[in-house]
Amino acid sequence: MTPPFLAAAGVHAFYGSSHVLHGIDLAVGRGEALALMGRNGMGKTTTIRALFGLTPPSEGDITIAGERVRGWPTHRIARLGLALVPEGRGIFPTLSVREHLVLAKQATIAADTRPAWDMDRVLELFPALRPRLAHMGDRLSGGEQQMLSIGRALMANPTLLVLDEATEGLSPLVRDTVWSVIRRIKAAGVALLIVDKDMDALLGVADRCLILSKGRVVYSDTPAHLAAHPEIHLRHLGV
Ligand SMILES: Nc1ncnc2c1ncn2[C@@H]1O[C@H](COP(=O)(O)OP(=O)(O)O)[C@@H](O)[C@H]1O
Ligand SMILES: [Mg+2]
Asked: Residue 64 Cα, ligand 2 centroid: separation in angstroms?
């Protein structure tokens, strides 16, 4: 059996003295899509931050591409093939669309044998960005910023793309565009770890789903299994 591209085992994390993650286990295989679910404040973003070394775990193991990365700086972890589309998008107001994409490209290495993502391929995925190449980040709509945030992450040629609430605050039309792009990224062989409130679309893309409650994994199975057990949905995800 080939090991998963990314595996976390028994990960704990704190903000100051506040113990937020209590032993997270998760795995994402190459090309696989994992939905990370749970109500607000349950630890989804913190789990992502722990994987990237942004909130370094206090305990536990994270293995990416065969390397044990706990304690590594974020830039070194990212170079193993991890890219993040962060909550809030992270677009720079005074950089143009072109500059965001070019800078992301310079920071990377060729991760494996899949065809590399470049500016042309990203613009093919998001044609709406093409006429905006010279526009500064603060002149873009929310939808354009989100497309740029995803495009920038792809420029790093990730083996695993992590999307934290990528459709948050977008109009239904733009949301549909983003989901269709996410499906195309998956079809191109990129593994995905997705947090999103749009459950139907999320479960339509995911191969497996995992639910967090108060910093613990309380459920891990397939979307089909979750759909067949509405009581699990209600207990851990219902409002
Ligand atoms: N920077 C921070 N400092 C202190 N506590 C935080 C910080 N960020 C998040 N938290 C707390 O950690 C818990 C998990 O938050 P988070 O991982 O953002 O949840 P989610 O992404 O699932 O909504 C929450 O109780 C939240 O209030
Ligand atoms: Mg969050």
From this structure: 22
Q: Is 88's C-beta closer than 6 angstroms to any atom of ligand 1?
A: no
Ligand nearest to the CA of 168: 2
Q: Which residues surround ligand 2, an ion (CB under 5 A)?
A: 44-45
**How many angstroms does the Cα of residue 195 sit away from the middle of ligand 1?**
14
Which listed ligand is nearest to 14 at the C-alpha?
A: 1
Tens of pLDDT, residue by residue over 136-159, are: 999 999 999 999 999 999 999 999
- Give me ligand 2 centre to Cα 230, in Å: 23
Averaged pLDDT score across all residues of the chain = 94
Backbone region of residue 195 per phi and psi (left: phi > 0; alpha: psi in -120 to 50; beta: other values): beta
Per-residue burial over 108-120, b = 16 or more CB atoms within 10 Å of its CB, e = otherwise: beebeeeeebebe
Please choose, from the candidates 52, 136, 141, the residue with its C-alpha nearest in 3D space to the C-alpha of residue 100: 136
Which tens digit of pLDDT belongs to each residue from 181-222?
Answer: 999 999 999 999 999 999 999 999 999 999 999 999 999 999
151 lines ligand 1 (CB under 6 A): no
With the most atoms of ligand 1 within 8 angstroms of its CB, the residue from 24, 26, 44, 46 to mutate is: 46
CATH superfamily name and code, 6-236: P-loop containing nucleotide triphosphate hydrolases (3.40.50.300)
pLDDT in tens, 47-56: 999 999 999 9
Output the six-digit token pair for 6: 């990314």
pLDDT band at 3 (very low <50, low <70, confident <90, very high): confident
